[in-house]
Sequence to fold (180 residues):
Amino acid sequence: KSEEKDLKKKYYEIKKFNPKLKSHFYDLMPRNINMLKLIHNEPIIELIKKFFNTEVLFSGRPAIHVHDKENDKLLDAHQETNQIARDIILFWCSLWDTNERNGGLTIYPGSHKGGYLEHSLDHPVLKDKAWTKNYTHISKDKLKQYKKTNLNVKAGSVVLVHSALVHSGYPLKDENHVRI
Fold:
């Protein structure tokens, strides 16, 4: 327990107290009514139905990703594969502005036009010390044909991308920041 009200400072308190506690945000999100209301609102549903020209939608599991000054959970370039359907829309929203200091979302414009690329499950750097056993990513050789763009997104704005669009995270540089 503490009196801390600032979410960024509270995150670092929790991480210092018990690093495993912070991971429970991820597990709880599919049951959070506010998150479900955000992604299941009528304008979003209608936009996705129109995009896929369908009346039937399935919703995947929402999750909160937390990235801190260690940048150890950043994902390399990948596509959203092995989901509930082959083609999905990724709904991405940040609680704080994303930029060169705060880190954010990198996209590879036009990469979705080539369909789904071959992915590797071997972590390119950490090997056996990776935070996940199935670290899905695309080799740097296959990415050479695409331009990499780091997005600057205002807090609360939403980025919707097709699952075939190659994307990754870019690191935060502000030692006191947490990107959620």
